[in-house]
Specification:
By secondary structure, the protein is mainly alpha-helical. The protein has helices at about 10-25, 50-55, 65-80, 90-95, 100-110, 120-125.
């Protein structure tokens, strides 16, 4: 009988040996070698879910253009951390303290004097559009 490891019982040594047999002997591929297998592919042209759903812009929701989405995103980054409802002077102060671009600060200064409930409310007032529904 060959020497067995003194760290495990003989039964455990046999189980470990059976589990690693494929890796040691070069037999059947193991889960560790799955990365070498090629992934299946299709010759069909891929379908774009944005186009298939009939959206006007790439990834933009109905009611908004791609430029609206990008502008609203930049506005949201500039206004991160604002406590709503907020007035325009609070929005301007927060954006200026956060290093927002001058164009954003000027746009916020031009807002009508009223309370804004959230970023979407501010964006709509600035003319960025409002999405009609969320997915």
């Amino acid at each position: 009988m060959p020497d067995k490891s003194d760290k495990h019982a003989p039964r455990v040594d046999d189980e470990i040996g059976a589990e690693t047999q494929g890796m040691v002997s070069g037999g059947h591929p193991t889960h560790a070698e799955e990365f070498k297998e090629t992934e299946p592919f299709s010759d069909e042209s891929p379908t774009d879910p944005v186009v298939a759903a009939g959206f006007a812009g790439e990834g933009s929701p109905p009611g908004m253009s791609a430029r609206d989405v990008e502008s609203r995103s930049a506005l949201a980054r500039a206004l991160t951390g604002v406590r709503y409802p907020a007035r325009p002077n609070e929005l301007v102060r927060h954006a200026a303290d956060g290093g927002a671009p001058d164009a954003t600060i000027e746009a916020l200064r031009a807002l009508p004097r009223r309370e804004y409930e959230n970023v979407a409310d501010v964006a709509e007032e600035l003319g960025y559009g409002r999405e009609e529904r969320r997915y």
